[in-house]
Amino acid sequence: MLARFHNAINGVKAQIDESQLDSLRSAPGVTAVRLVRTYHMNNVESVPFIGAPLVWQGSPGYLGEKQKIVVIDTGIDYTHANFGGPGTVEAFEAAAATSTQPADPTLFGPKAVKVKGGTDLVGDDYDADSDDPAKTVPVPDPNPLDCNGHGSHVAGTATGYGVASNGKTYHGPYTAAAITPANFIVGPGVAPKADLYSVRVFGCEGTTSVVVDAIEWAIANNMDVINMSLGSVYGSADDADAVEVSNAARAGVVVIASSGNSGPIPYITGSPGVSDGAVSVASVDSHQSFPGAQITFNTGSVLAINANGAPLPSGALAVKVLRDAAGGVSLGCNEAEYIDAEVSGKLVVTLRGVCPRVDRATFGQRHGAAAVLMINTSDVYPPYEGPIPDVTIPFLGVLSSDAAIPANATSATQFVAATIANGGFRAASDFSSAGPRFGDSVLKPNVTAPGTSIFSTNVGSGNQGIYISGTSMASPHVAGVAALTTQAHPKWDPKAIRAAIVQTANPKALLDYTPSSEGSGLVQPLGATRTQAVAFAEGRGSGQSISFGFEEFLRNLREEKDVTVRNYGDTPIVFKVTSTKTGGVPHTLNLSRSTIVVGPHSDARLEASLSVPVDTVVRPMTTWATRCSRRSRATSRSRRAALR
Predict the structure, then answer these.
(1) Half-sphere exposure of 561 (CA within 13 A, CB side)
(2) Stretch 81-91: mean pLDDT, rounded?
(3) What confidence tier does 181 reach under pLDDT thresholds 50, 70, 90?
(4) CA distance 629 to 609
(5) What secondary structure does DSSP assign to 352-378, as a single string?
């Protein structure tokens, strides 16, 4: 037996051979056996992009005061200026030297200004998938200092104070006018005055299987919001962690989780975000443009992305193309290829693949190159990296269709600064995992937030930031919104808070809106904190949207679902109810009412009826979006119709 649980799930955690499952299920007192998943780790621009400053400066304004957010992740760098720490590398190194001992109480714990508590459940060496049996055994301690960086980055997006341009912790004012790039090294998080807690479930690298333990801690310590930027693909509502998330929601905790980074593959969206009790978050690209360079070679001219925004060369450069054994352009993944005498003062040309992209810039910098150019393997620009640690030379990237020009060049005669429009702006990130939920086709993910090239806390740097992409970066935006929403609606239960977040999201803010990939749309903190009404749907799922689920039928399908609209306010609200078709096989959705009047502190109901002619079912998915005007939206979805 590995652990006992009694808060979010009644049971024990044990590791047994798969051949013993049937006998365990039939043992006296055993009601269910559930899989414990192994999980992987999945601001100045992105926080204003969702409209958080409008909530901060509203009347009343909300900054997350007295709301407790726990980030279940790789730990936290509580010495960083973004969390009110000293903001020096030396302070982090001193903390790391005693990281298994209780942390400095002025930086971590009830007396700290930001990071009020938490724990380390695993230790530095832990990795659930390690070949070394010793590393698969958690070694807990009271100090969740981050040695990976993922958790600190996530926490900064949710609730960092911000780091001002002078390198000091920012304490306000929190207004739209103040939140400009020139004023910050690292911008504030979505709920900058919320209290932060950290439960470390990952070692310095690798995977984890102690997420259930962390949720148990969160419930026992009365957290308001849980953020889990982690996941396991093809998540099911029956996973142990998904069940525990639902129980956590019943215990009063709002749970936010990332949808996963496996791309737009149907049903791949991950656990624990698939839980009925969680808001699963997809990722959108919030960058409208990137810095670039028009480069003139002796072989032609190309437009390149300036992936780290470094100053461009002022004059001509000789070109050194790294070559592989076959004479093609090398990947540049071996530092030995960067021979000082051959690359010093030159533009080095490489090809993308295998190793981390920024390795090429790092190797070029170390060996005296004036710039490094990477040819992409597809006809889009490589990702924007932002500042790369210890790299001051430009790291440039070009399309695969432009490969021949730098690959055959001997000189670059001119570099002119340019701006590159981002073709993915306001569209789902290409890595963001799609739904619906595996097993029953309930709508997941639920909502979308920025997750591409997010600049937040850089662990161990004192006061610097770093760009990272992933739905891991999208989830804490919504966790911050959850803290603002619980502050605005202190008497609402988690189900209503989740509904407010999901139903006020804006699908029109997304240029490629697809419910199965982006849920109900881009999260809107202003709407979530200001709405006085939400809708609850019957049937499968969390009640935030209508889900007709997976259906197999041999005759015309007709199903009905009830929707209850609840007014928590003191005045009547009148809703106009409409439905908008967003794709699928021929079908109709009829609503029993076109107008609803909901009295103060009262409910009103309507019925949604889905009809699908059996002889038209030639594709597996059909989608409807049903909208209540004025701050309330319900989404219904006929998930999958299969004719057999």
Answers:
(1) 24
(2) 98
(3) confident
(4) 19
(5) --SS-THHHHHHHHHTT-SEEEEE-SS
* 233-259: average pLDDT: 88
From residue 201, how far is each of 44, 65, 642 by CA, in Å? 28, 26, 40
pLDDT band at 12; cut points 50, 70, 90: low
CA distances from 183 to 131, 154, 286, 460 (A): 47, 21, 20, 22
Cβ atoms of 413 and 297 closer than 8 Å = yes
Q: How far apart are CA 252 and CA 42, in angstroms?
A: 25
Question: What secondary structure letter does DSSP report for 271?
Answer: B
Residue 1 sits at the vertex; the CA angle it makes with 126 and 133, to the nearest 5 degrees, is: 35
Tens digit of each residue's pLDDT (9 = 90 or more) over 298-317: 999 999 999 999 999 999 99
Residue 287, both tokens: 């960058």
Distance CA 608, CA 394 (A): 56
The string of DSSP letters for 598-616 reads E-TTEEEEEEEEEEE-GGG
**Cα-to-chain-centroid distance, residue 509:** 18
The partner residues of 280 in beta bridges, in order of sequence, read 257
Domains annotated for the chain, with CATH where assigned, are 40-286+432-488 (3.40.50.200), 289-421 (3.50.30.30), 532-642 (2.60.40.2310)
Write out the DSSP string of 12-54: EE----GGGHHHHHTSTT---------BEE--TTHHHHTTHHH
**What's the CA angle centered on 74, arms 243 and 41, to 5 degrees?**
65
Q: What angle do CA 24, 27, 31 make, to 5 degrees?
A: 85
Predicted confidence (pLDDT) per residue in 62-71, tens digit: 999 999 999 9
Instruction: Please compute the mean of the pLDDT values over residues 569-589 and round it to a whole number.
Output: 88
H helix or E strand, kind and range, residue 158: helix 150-159
Comparing CA positions, the residue from 470, 500, 505, 504 lying closest to residue 482 is 500
List of residues 6+ apart from 213 with CB closer than 8 A: 3, 5, 13, 121, 201
Q: Indicate the Cα dihedral angle 581, 586, 590, 595, nearest 10°.
A: 20
Q: Residue 633's pLDDT band (boundaries 50, 70, 90)?
A: very low
Alpha carbon separation from 533 to 120, 192, 569, 628, 634 (Å, rounded): 39, 26, 7, 10, 12
| DSSP label at residue 81 | G
Tokens of 311: 């100053």
